[in-house]
Amino acid sequence: MCSAVAHGVMVNIMCLLHKSNDGYGKLLLNQKFKQTGNQIKDFALMVAKMCPFDLVEVEVGLTELISENVLVFDGDLLVSKRMVRDGELSVMRSESGKKGGIESVKSRKSFAQAKIKANNQANTENENGINNNIQIVKHSDNEGNFKPSGNFKSQGEEVFAFRASADATKPKPDRNTNSKGT
Question: Does the domain formed by 4-84 have CATH 2.30.29.30?
Answer without folding.
Answer: no
